[in-house]
Amino acid sequence: MSALRVVSFHYTLRDPSGRVLDSSAGGDPISYLEGAGQIIEGLDEQLRSTAVGTKTRVVVPAARAYGERDPDQVQRVKRALLPVDGEIKVGDQFQAGHDRHAPVVTVQSIEGDDVLLDGNHPLAGVDLTFDVEITAARAPTQTELDHGHAHGCSDGGCGCSH
Ligand code: ZN
Fold this sequence. Notes:
This protein is mainly β. The protein is 8% helix and 34% strand. The strands form two sheets. Strands 1, 2, 3, 4 and 9 form a five-stranded antiparallel beta sheet that branches. A four-stranded antiparallel beta sheet has the order 5-8-7-6, with no helix packed on it.
């Protein structure tokens, strides 16, 4: 087994219809510690040991990305119980609690006074295509290994606040 690296890369993420879902273009590359769960598992695995400068397309099946859709994650709630002022539309998303890490739910349908909320990740059940360019790779520091994530992102977007 080769040593784990801190890898930086640019990516454009598309769904199976080719629609762009997300991209790092125009911003800083994303950095992650290999094997630490900082990016989706299927992408991490397929980029392992990829050389700096490599441009590649990685297709990650839903099961290795955000998982398959779980019908049990859809629940019916009373409209009046939702923490939302004003109108609710199909497709609206909000957090199902006050915690910053509370799961995001999506309004799937509205039936009278009831709202069907889908607790699946918006990308559950979607096969993801990443066009990736590896821009840098280095050995992790001991601190990064201890923390289990890469340090040094410029905007704090890595979720590491120190
Ligand atoms: Zn840290």
